[in-house]
Amino acid sequence: MRPLPFIGFLAVFAAATPALAREYDLVIDDARIEIAGRVTDGMMINGQLPGPTLRFTEGLEAVIHVRNDSDAPTSLHWHGLFVPAEMDGSPGFSGFQAIQPGRSFTYHFTIRQHGTYWYHSHSGGQEQMGLYAPLIIEPATAETNPPDRDYVVLLSDFTSEHPDRILNNLKVDSGYYNNYHRTIGDFFRDARTFGFGAALQDRLAWGQMRMDPTDIADVTNYTFLLNGHPATDNTSFLFRPNERVRLRLINGSAMTYFDFRIPGLKLTVVAADGRDVEPVEVDELRIAVAETYDIIVEPREDAAYTIFAESMDRSGYARGTLAPRLGMEAAIPKMRPRAILTMADMGMSHGDASADMPMDHSRMDHGADHGAMDHSQMGQMDHSAMGQSADSHQGHDISSGLGANGGVDGSGRPYGWGSEFPADARVLTYADLASATPQRDTRPAEREIIVRLGGNMERYNWTINGQSMEDAPPINLAFGERARLTFINETMMAHPMHLHGMFVQLENGMPTERLPDKHIVSVAPGQTYSVLLTADQPGEWAFHCHLLYHMNAGMMSRVVVARSDGQPAAYDNANAHGGHQ
């Protein structure tokens, strides 16, 4: 492996702007990376971490030459973009093969959308090793009210461990990185709050399942980065008081959800996953792995504000500063308590009002051997007897998707996934999102496809409908078909599900014509969400959880959209910019 300079040294990349095309040259190479005193053998694009920001304008041609100077096969995937299937950059799909060492590949496609996106390797653990970067597309026509400033804020997680070693550690012990096991002190605190019997039953239930309610994230010990910089660097973004500043948030992490806020400022969310939404003002938001949000902030004071992205497992944070002048800093917020998962997060409370901790386990049949619990089999539970038949998932209350869900005990400790926010904070939920432009396809679904998200923690296998990637049959769709995908999360982890090549319409309670587009749907633990899909992009597409080690441990499948007769479908949306008018 040929060493490259440490981070901070930028390599030159070429960019040309022909009349109707924009062309980039990207070079992928091995690299020795040092961040915050931690050193690892990683990979870079043009010697940068993150890689260079690619900028395009809607309607132009993108020509991206990629040369692989590393020692391993590689790839680049254009996350969230409408591209011909063979240009998607996922090895093994639609005939695309990994770029071999010493070889080059040219991606060529028309830009058919605008917004905030990113690109990353889709080969093994290379995304974790450093192959990721922003991709920004300006609209074809000028914005009516453009912001005064426009910044990219790319969040990521860095480790000095090789991704293969991380996955191997998880295979040996799924709790390998969980350093927050509950203690005898926690037990007595729970006993004082909920009663001795409830606390004891809760411990026994988790023990029988060989799970841990503190398993918020599978991998910890990360250093969190903002635009490639650790918190100590105090990355700054300048403004003048009363300016409108757009921050393009991208979560380019391998495994980390972030709770994002700027103390002292309201966040107006104007786009989600690159698609414009009706503005909604919040105090903070939780950004799932691979999601993007555009927010507008309007600082009035001649003062500094801390941009604070706290990891969901409270193991650290990424941080920057919004300031009138370089060198200014604001107070860094204190880290919030780490939440404790409940049986409700396992989808096992089924209306039990005490499930936020003092669950009435006497109603559960513990005669079953939960010791080697296989989540893939949980799909066999008779949900119909609990009022959760597959048909009834349409219109499921999705308001708790990323917002408050759970509670806080007497000591202030949050219980339940999504309960780590202050009671008085307005936190963005999926129910808040409404498309800024009408959906073109408002047909009802012709059929429903159930997508059960499962896993086996004993072996650290993650599955879709009980099968890992190598065993799973494809989901076949006819070109133009309108289908409902119903995600049923039967695990204690959230899963940011990503479908390549297409957007889905999130059924979040909004009118059909205002359902928001998403290319990532973060399905909370134990929850059921549904989306509508117009199969308007022919090809063979990857469909997977965007948690890197879940995907690499099996939670991946393929969706095949077949154009059988070469004729336009009843709904031909090939040039409709994702279904919008």
SSE topology:
Blueprint: E1 15-16, E2 21-35, E3 38-45, E4 54-57, E5 61-68, E6 77-79, E7 104-110, E8 115-120, H1 126-129, E9 132-138, E10 149-158, H2 163-172, H3 184-194, H4 196-209, E11 223-226, E12 235-238, E13 245-251, E14 258-261, E15 267-272, E16 275-282, E17 284-287, E18 292-297, E19 305-311, E20 317-323, E21 407-408, E22 414-415, E23 447-456, E24 461-464, E25 475-478, E26 482-489, E27 495-499, E28 504-506, E29 517-518, E30 520-523, E31 528-534, E32 539-545, H5 548-552, E33 556-562
Parallel strand pairs: 2-5, 4-9, 10-13, 12-20, 23-26, 25-33
Antiparallel strand pairs: 1-2, 2-3, 5-7, 6-8, 8-9, 10-11, 13-18, 14-17, 14-19, 15-16, 15-18, 19-20, 21-22, 23-24, 26-31, 27-30, 27-32, 28-29, 28-31, 32-33
